[in-house]
Every structure is written in C-alpha cells, then in structure tokens.
Amino acid sequence: MRFALLLFGLLAAGALLPYAPQADVHPAAADLPASAAHLLGTDHLGRDVLARLLAGSRAFLVPGAGAALLAGLGGVGLGTLAGWYGGVVEGLVRGGLGAITAVPPLVLALLVMMAVGATPTGLALGVGLAALPGLAEVVADRLAELRRAEFVVAARALGLGDLRILAWHLLWVNTRTLVGREALAIVGQALVLEVTLSYLGRFGVQEPAPSWGNMIDHALRTGSVNPWTWAAPAGAVMLAVWAANPAGGRR
Amino acid sequence: MRLVLRALALRALAFLTTTAGAVLLVSVCFALVPGDAIDALPNGPELRAQLEGEWGLVGGPAERVLGTFSRAGRLDFGHSLTVSPGAPVAELMGSAAARSARLLAPAALLSLLAGFAGAALAGAGAELPPSPWRPRLVRALASLSALPAVLAALATVNGVNALAWPLIESARLTRPVWFALPETDHPVRSFLAVIVLTGASGSFLWGVRRAGDTLADLAARPFVGAERARGGPIAPLLARHLVVPAARMGAAHLPLLLSALVVVERGFGMPGAGSLFWESCGRRDWPVTVGLAVVAAVTVTTARFVADALAVVFDPRERAALA
Amino acid sequence: MRVCAGERLLLDDFGLRVQAGEVVAVVGASGSGKTLALRSILDLLPFRPGRIAGEVRVNGARRDGRSLRGDVGLVFQDARGSLDPLRTVGAQLAHAAGLAGAESPGPALLERLGFAEPERAAQRYAHELSGGMAQRAAIAVALARQSRFLLCDEPTTGLDAPVQAALVRELRSLREVGILFVTHDLRLLPGFADRILVLAGGRVVEEATSLEGLRGAGRALVEATAAIAPPSWPRSRA
C-alpha cells in the first residue's frame, strides 16, 4: 500500500507540471527513440512520451480520488448503518446495495456517464457509484464482526456512549486501514475504466489531452516505430493497477 | 417441507425487490440523460412527437422512470432507434445474448473450476505437508491475472496479429478466414476470447482467493477432521459442502464477466450482447441500451436467486434463519 | 510413543494399554499433551512438520495410525462441530455404518444412548441438537462405525453437570468398547474409570486404579480439585 501511495504521489506531482498538449506537437521530431532529450522518445506527432505520461496521470488520479471520496463517504455511511444496527436496517441497506451491484460495473459506469456527461466528473460518479457497495459491504462486515466483540461490551460497561465507541474505536481504529485499501483499489478501478473507455472509443479523454488510455489507443492506431509510445502507458497501467490492489483484490 | 417453501418464498421476495431496485437505478440514469437520438435521425423533427411517445423520452425524470419501469415490467423493450432501426429490441437482444452465451458460459464455468483447482493446488484442504512453492506459484499466477480485461484483450489481439503477420507475409500461413471478419465464428478466436474473459475479468483472481479461503476454512472444520478420523473419504464430503459456496461465487462473478464481455467482444471483433451494448451507447439508442442493462441486471439477480435456492435446499441452517 | 514438532519434543515415552470394556482415564493439566496423545494414535497431528515414533498394537498386531482410523473412534470436545451440518443424524449413522460395511443401526442405537424420541432425533440436524444430545449423537456415529475403541477428548467440557453425569454413565454402559477418556476434571472419575494415567510435561508420570491410589503429581491434581469437589472427595489429612 505504501508503494502505491508513493507511486500515485509521484504521478500527481508530475501531473502538476505544466503541460500544453498542442504546444508539444513537433512533426519533425516524430517517432524518436529514447534519448537524453526525450527519456521515452516521442510519438507519431513528435510529442514527448514521458511528459504525456505524467500529464496523463491526471486523467485517472483526479476522477479516481473523486470516486474514492464518493464511495468512501457513502460506503462508510451506509456500511455503518448496516453493520451497527443490524436487523431490518441491515437487510434494507444490503438489499439496496445488492440492487446496485446487480448492474455490471462497466454498464453502470457507462449509464452514469451518459447521464452526466463523458467528463472526469462523470467518470468519478460512475466509478464511485459502482464501487460504493463493495466498500459498504466491507465496512458492514467488519462492524458486524466487531460490535459483538468483548471490548465493545466492556467499553459500554465503562459508560462510553455508543456514538463514541462507534466513531473512535470501531471506525477509526479498526476499520480505517480496510477502508484505505478499498479506496486505493477504487483509484485503480478508475484507471482501468478510463483505459477501457478510451479503448472502446468515444467516452474516454479526448485528444489532444493525454490520458494513458488514449495514449495506448493512439499508439496502436498510428503504429509508431518507437515502442515506448504504447509500452510506457501500458506498463504504467499495469504497474498502477498492481500497486493499487496489493492483495490482488477484485475490481 | 414447509420451512423450505417459506425460506424459498423469502428469497424470491428478495430477488424481486433487488431486481426492481436495479431496474429503478437503470431507469433513473436513463431519465437523467440529456438529448436523445431523435436528433440524429434524418427525419427526426417530423417524427419527434411519435417517437418520443414510443421511446418514453417525454416528460420529466419522474415520468420517464415510471415509464421505463412499466415497460420493463411488461417486457416491452420497444424498437431499436439507430443500431438496427425499427427492429424489436427483444429480438436483437435475444440473438445477441445467444451469441454471447457461448462465450460467457464456458468462461463462468472455467473461472469457478480454475478458482477451486488453483486453491486445491495451493494445498488448501489437503492432508499432505504443504510445500512452500505451491501457494506462491498460485499467487503469482493469480496476480498475473490482475491484468485488466482491456489490456489483456489488447495484448492478445495485437500479439496474435504481430505473430501471425510475418508468417502470413512469408507465406508460411494462409490468412485465416476469421482474421478480420467479425461475423464468422471460429473456434480459435472463441477460445482466446474465453481465456481472456476468464483470466482478465477479475473473476479468476478473485475466485482463486475466495475459493482458497473457502476451502481452507472448510478443511479446518471439526467435522472434516471427524470424517478423517473415521477413515472416510474427504473429497466427496468437501464437494458436497462446496456446492453452495461455488454457486454463490458464480453469481458474484457474473457482473465482472458481463463487464469484461463488453471489452472482449469489442476487442476481438465478435458480435454479441457486449458489442451491441457498446454500439447502442455510442449511438444513443436508448431502447437497446436500457433493455440490455435491465437484462444484465436481471441475469445477475436470477443467478443470485438460484444460488440462494440451492442454499435453502442443501443447507438446513438456511431454512432456520428468518432472513 | 514420541511426538515431535520440528525440533521440539512434545510427547515422550507415552505408553498405555486399553482393553475392551475398560475405561482408562488420562488426566493432566492443560498443555500436558493429552489431546496430542489421542491425535497421534490416529496420525492426525494438527501441525507440520511432525514426527511420530512409536507403535500401536491391536490384539498384538502392529497397526499403522491411518489404518486404525475407524476401528478406533475419536470423540471430539466440540460435538456439534464434529457432526456434518448438512446431513441428518440418521444419515450420518448410516454413512458411518457404511464405512464399516455394516447396516445402519438405526434409531435403536440412539435409544441406547439415552435419546427420548430416537425416531425424531434421527431426523434432526446438528444445529438443532443441544450440547449433550450432540455429544451422544457423535458417540452413536462412532459406534455405528463399529469402532472397538473410543478415544474421548474432553467430551464433557461445556456441558451442564447433570448432562455430564448422564454422558459418563452412558459411556460406562458401553461394555463392548474400550474407552480412553482424556479429561481435566477429575470429579468425573469415581465409579467411571478403571485406571487413571497422569500426564505431565508430555510424559506419563503416574498410573493408578483409583483416585486414592495417586501420589505425587496425581495427588496434586486431586488436592487441587478438592476446592470444587463434594465432601466425599479424598482429601489429605491436614
């Protein structure tokens, strides 16, 4: 998990560097191999691959963070309701979550993006909504397990209020790592969705703005001689996905 | 018997409400969509009034939601707008689903089997001394399959192309019929598609972990030890206890497989429900899009209900619980 | 018999003899290796790597741990857990009998073990049985398997006192099997055990035919039990 945070931190820093896609077009310098001036070479339009790679990370980090926030807030809220109160409340919440998971995640994300627009906001909403039930389930399961624990009974016996037990002991101390891991995985999911949309066409980030997905798509369609044009973004995607899912979790 | 029926009825109720909820979600998304495909049609403005009524594009969000709901309930999915204008959506979906089923069914079975095989290979549930390299090997394989479907499809298609092209050019291989023609079925392409679908949808990876946990947990139970102490066969015992978890896993994998289906079908250029969905999204063909989304959701909830029903039939503890 | 886990010697020089119809009790403090001893007889160590050195003979013939399974039955502490949750008691009796190549003993066996309504009991599932009933069912399954010896691993733990007493009585009445009864509660032994073995630190340190006959480590256990035992309990003259 630490590696992933490091990686994403670096990417975010790189993404903050100013990059003007149009200004980068140098037809004369097309398809150059890796060199000192261009560490990963250039693509078919002469654009520096590394610069696009760093700038392109914005395309998934921002929506990913938004999705993680959405799923995190909603998921923790609903999961707490379900896990803490149990009974009918839990049944209702889980049923509602079940309704969301019944729609395959890609289908759901696409529907949301069609309703809201093929923008980073749309991506964030789509991924966030699709990932919300997973996070909620994780929190609910953990709380259901913990609320019967002896230390909770002991805390109550000491006179601690339910809210305090819940907020501090259960949620913060015991659940935050779990939630953190899920949130990281959600950023990975946002990346995968972005790449998928670019690959399928039309709903991804549009040229000339870079994104790892459209870099791969562009490279394969224009058939550049420099292998880094597709290898770099593809490798970056795999590395990021592997890092975001440390235990090899689900998508 | 009455317990079984009551438990089944409860599960059926859960199935209906979840399905309704999913349809609601789909129709809400649809209701919020700005613009429509009528503008894309050449004689759109003339037919606007008629088409709007037919496709439920009238009224505010609430009316649209209700409209979709009632039409879904009547199984009236309308007619395609742009993908195959005029064609009844139900028909389109039917033939597409039939084609996709040929990919989905083997992939679903394979991911379940591979999940449990992988777990068993890693030594879960066995009485043999566990060798350290086996679980590591399985974990490595499983993390390889963390590859997203999109990249796997890309890699496979481009890899095969890259491999085959020089062979074709040097005339050592005649260009196969299915190489670029989407309509022709070919076992090799289907096989590759199934492999990618299984391996890269996340279901295999998830399956291995879940299967491993389930198997290990099961093998540690006292009644398994008791059967061993009795000198009885363990394999049938474990198998009997794995039916319900396997069914549940299958139902849980289905959404992942359906998502990956869109990518795989499009990547491999194969027609089916996945490609149809993507096309209808791109062309804003709402009846088809909504229809497919609803069908996908219903498939998932049905699979869940089947797993629940199996649990009620096979596990007496499920009948005792009220929820 | 000696049992090692890796480098550690867990059980050393464990030897005993049991005859049909006999009840041999093995007592000792927690961690003395009682459960381990039972599992080793059937080669069912819960950990690896483990080595068992030693031999088991039945009627003079040397038998391998695995081949003993079935002929020697194991009765677990967690009775409900040791029953298959998906099958009725009757089905499990039939299955066990089948393993021995015999006919299912049916509800008659359950009646013998103290079930009030044996037919109904045979239709029950494990989760519907109380602790005592589950233990009786587990013993019935072992008997259906035609086990000639029962290795009982603290089968009365967690049960009410009257249920414990009844269970012990029923075990005593099983004249056709030899019973090795591991327990840490010595109060069960009067009138029940024919011989008592004391286990400490992985070795058999004492053997006697009654509580009064115990000296040394066994005596210490008897004294410790005096605090919770009835007045008739043997106490040292202070």
How does this model look, in words?
- The complex is a heterotrimer of chains A (251), B (323) and C (238).
- In chain A, 73% of the residues lie in helices and 0% in strands.
- The model of chain A has no long low-confidence stretch (mean pLDDT 81).
- Chain A folds into 2 domains: 2-58 and 202-249, no CATH class; 60-195, no CATH class.
- Chain A is elongated, with a radius of gyration of 21 Å.
- Chain A starts with a helix and ends in a 7-residue tail after the last helix.
- Chain A has 251 residues and is an all-alpha fold.
- With 323 residues, chain B is mainly α.
- Chain B folds into 2 domains: 1-83 and 283-323, no CATH class; 105-281, no CATH class.
- Helix content of chain B is 74%, strand content 0%.
- Chain B has helices at 2-31, 44-55, 61-73, 89-121, 133-144, 149-169, 187-200, 203-219, 222-229, 234-268, 273-282, 286-314, 316-320.
- In chain B, helix 4 (89-121) crosses helix 8 (203-219), helix 4 packs across helix 12 and helix 10 (234-268) crosses helix 11 (273-282).
- The two termini of chain B are 17 Å apart.
- The mean pLDDT of chain B is 78.
- Chain C is an alpha/beta fold.
- Chain C folds into 2 domains: 1-71 and 148-232, 3-Layer(aba) Sandwich (Rossmann fold), CATH 3.40.50.300; 83-145, no CATH class.
- Chain C has 9 helices and 11 strands.
- Chain C has helices at 34-41, 65-68, 79-82, 89-99, 107-112, 118-122, 131-144, 161-172, 216-226, and strands spanning 2-5, 8-11, 23-27, 50-53, 56-58, 61-63, 72-75, 149-153, 178-183, 195-200, 203-208.
- A 6-stranded mixed sheet of chain C has the order 7-8-9-3-10-11, sandwiched between helices.
- In chain C, helix 4 (89-99) packs parallel to helix 7 (131-144).
- In chain C, 42% of the residues are buried.
- The model of chain C has no long low-confidence stretch (mean pLDDT 82).
- Chains in contact: A-B, B-C.
- Chains A and B meet through helix 4, helix 5, helix 8 and helix 10 of A and helix 1, helix 5, helix 6, helix 8 and helix 10 of B.
